[in-house]
Amino acid sequence: MRSNKLEYFKIGMLLLNSVAVMLISVFVNVTTEDIRARFYARRFLDGVNAIPPRPAADIVYCGMLLLILVCAFILRKKVFPQNKTLIYISLALDFAISILIVYILDFNYNGILLFVFANVLAHTKDSKIRYSLIMLAVVSFLVTGYEFAAISNRLYSIRDYIAFYAPAIQQYLFGIYNGIISLNIIMFILYCVYEIIGQQGTIDEVNNLYDRLSKANRYLENANEQLRDYAVITEKMGETRERNRLAREIHDTLGHTLTGISAGIDACITTLSISPEETKKQLNIIARVTREGIADVRRSVNELRVDAQENPKLEHNVTKMITDMQAVTDAKIYFTNKAGILKLSEDEENAIYRVIQESVTNAIRHGKAEKIWIELNHNDGHILLVVEDNGIGCKEVKSGFGTKHIRERIEMLGGKVAFGGTENGFKVTGEIPVRWGCSI
Amino acid sequence: MKKISIKQWAVICACTAALTAGAITLRELNKPVVLELGMFVGSNWGVANANSYVIIDKAIERFESEHKNVKVLYDSGIQKVDYSEWFARRVLSGNAPDVFMVLSSDFYQFSSMGIMKNLDGLMQSDESFHKDKFFTTALDSGKYGGTQYALPYEIVPTLMFVNKSLLLSNGIQVPSYDWTWNDFYDICSRLTQDSHQNEAANRFGTLNFNWYDVVTTNGAYLFDADGKQANFTDERVAEAIRFSKQIYDLNHGQKVTQEDFDNGNVAFMPLLFAEYRTYKTYPYKIKKYTSFQWDCITMPSGKNGGNTSSVDSLLIGINSRTRHEKLAWEFLKLLTYDEELQTDIFRYSQGASALRSVTNSIQVEKILQEEMEEGERIISHELLSRVIEEGSVTPRFPNYIEAMALAENEVNKIFESNKNIDQTLKYIQRTVSRFLVN
């Protein structure tokens, strides 16, 4: 409803301005002919500053330019109401054409610019461009005012042409001329008022939509969190299912193989005394079945994760690893767990275990360390891990395969790691945030 | 029906525009260029002229032979009195001629309205054009506000007519070209004094030698070139008025008329060079001043001035909106700057050429001599050149006539009712200045 009203305003302004422009150009031409017919030309020239160069041609020019304005208006409305680029181009064209019309009429009428500004206002909702365009509009409207333009230019004045007629007719002519100018300005102001009221409505609507959007957003956040939890559970369930599947497979293959072997051996015991040849054959079969079984077991076992998987207790695993290490090397390894028993998820345990293993291996292999201290601490949702040795150390820490792996593992969990080398040993300090973050 | 897309619209529009533009260009290219000349028939100086179109026709013929595919047209039969209105009407409907003669009364208005083309650029860029070839006075008459808007086609200085018979019969020699106010006063007083012996005077010193002509001979100007300022309080103006008053008083209030002059009873009268040439030669010679011998000399010079008289010129300008600027300039140059054509001014018209080399040539003197009867002294080319060179340009600003009427009214009071000269001049200065500002 409102936008319809605005459209009517714009059409009204277009009509009024077309009439005004054509009236002025025709009036000037008619008056020129009248002056010529009365042989008053020379005296008329004495009283004016300038005259239009080609009054008859001006009518044609104005008519053609107005036609383009009308076409652009219709195209904007009917052909490309959605195409922003074309709309802007056509608005720029409108502006250029109306400036041209103002120029042809020697600045005697610049109301046509108001029509262009009304269109610009209607089509630019983007406030940034809008304000500069409004500035441009105000400046161009002021600059194209007759009184302003006549300061530095020699312009003909419609008033001189009106003054040619008898005073009684002059009154009417001035009335019409000023009436058109005023009516156009009034229409423009009304248009602006409607446009502003319309925009207030739009702002309310936008605020309303924003509220609804915020609510929807909060709801979505909750849903997202639930989904994340659910994903973790699903992941766990998946792992359990996978583990069960593997266990089943091991049971099936190993059970089957072992049953086969047991049955085969029973048969061998019976046939051993009767036919050693047959027994040997049977044993060969058993050997093959056994090898196949071993292969099956290896495959299944490989699919499970080692160490931690077997025993989710980190401390136990580490202790076992230390014992194993000490058995094969001379190094003394001290392990202090100040964190107590941690409830860690498997990937965290695994990572920590691997980091310790890697660090200890490095200390022995590269540092030739005799003593290695491992310390595990828990602080404010973080696991602090320090592995220090008294080996040869290094002055500069080079990024090698070992340290790179350690860094990758810790960073994968969102933690930080630092390597420090002195002459008296090497130190790995890791800090890992714990998701379930508490000790039991 | 299928909807026409934006792109198709654009293509259709572009094609139509291109075709139209092409057709128009093709049509324009094949048309011969038409250059229009605006001119009036007869003399600019109110003397009879039977050969109005001879020079112009010669010029057009030459121009058309030099420029193929160019036609020069003019409306024939426009009288000088109608010319201003005719031209103004053409200007109003926007189809003024490309090149046109402009009357002195129109020059200021037309150049200030931008109807006439600013010629400074064309003059500077044309290497074959040297403005020094014109008399400075003549060239200045085509200037407005320091800008050249027109070039002088023909110029006419004012000379002093001398009734030789009257002077000689009273035992007075014809004055030399360097004569002064004193000589002038001397002769006038001798003539009138003699005649006053028998109560009503029948011989007079001068007719129409107005106070403003006297001002010119005293090196003063009543107005500046643009008509923005009046100079009535200039001491030289006061001197000139005082001198005029002396001359006026010689007649004891008796009015000198044209009839007195025609009957051979007046010694001096300012006369246009055009009139001189017309009435000195056949056939118009028989029309006027047949009962006495006469000649022309310079104006008498004042204390602070020279033997200066006003120089009037017939100007030709170019329409500022001409579409053939180059051709219009070439044609204007042919009319005003070509020595051969300008020499024809002396053959077929009554004025003088604005070109120094033409007016100052022996050939011109010969042409003038041919027109004269044997035994008549003719104006030497030196005198003519000198009068033009030292001449002063008649002001052309629009309110000139009104401003002069205002002043003249007051000055007449000085003559007729013996008003105080200095006070009256101060009053005139105030009144006229106020008039010029408004």
Q: What does this 3D model show about the protein?
A:
The complex is a heterodimer of chains A (440) and B (438). Chain A has 440 residues and is an alpha+beta fold. Chain A folds into three domains: 2-164; 230-303, Single alpha-helices involved in coiled-coils or other helix-helix interfaces; 308-433, Histidine kinase-like ATPase, C-terminal domain (Heat Shock Protein 90, 2-Layer Sandwich). Helices cover 70% and strands 9% of the residues of chain A. Chain A has 13 helices and five strands. In chain A, β2 (371-379) and β3 (382-389) form a beta hairpin. Chain A is elongated, with a radius of gyration of 47 Å. The model of chain A is unreliable at 305-311 (pLDDT under 50). Chain B has 438 residues and is of the alpha/beta class. Chain B has two domains: 33-157 and 312-379, D-Maltodextrin-Binding Protein, domain 2, CATH 3.40.190; 158-310 and 394-437, Periplasmic binding protein-like II (D-Maltodextrin-Binding Protein, domain 2, 3-Layer(aba) Sandwich). Chain B is 49% helix and 13% strand. Chain B is built from 19 helices and eleven strands. In chain B, strands 1, 2, 3, 6, 7, 8, 9, 10 and 11 form a nine-stranded mixed sheet that branches. Chain B has a two-stranded antiparallel ribbon with strand order 4-5. In chain B, β4 (143-144) and β5 form a beta hairpin. The N and C termini of chain B lie far apart (69 Å). The mean pLDDT of chain B is 86. Chain A binds chain B through residues 32-33, 35-36, 39, 41-42, 44-46, 48-57, 75, 79-80, 83, 86, 154, and chain B through 6, 9, 84-85, 87-89, 91-95, 106, 109-110, 113-114, 321, 398.
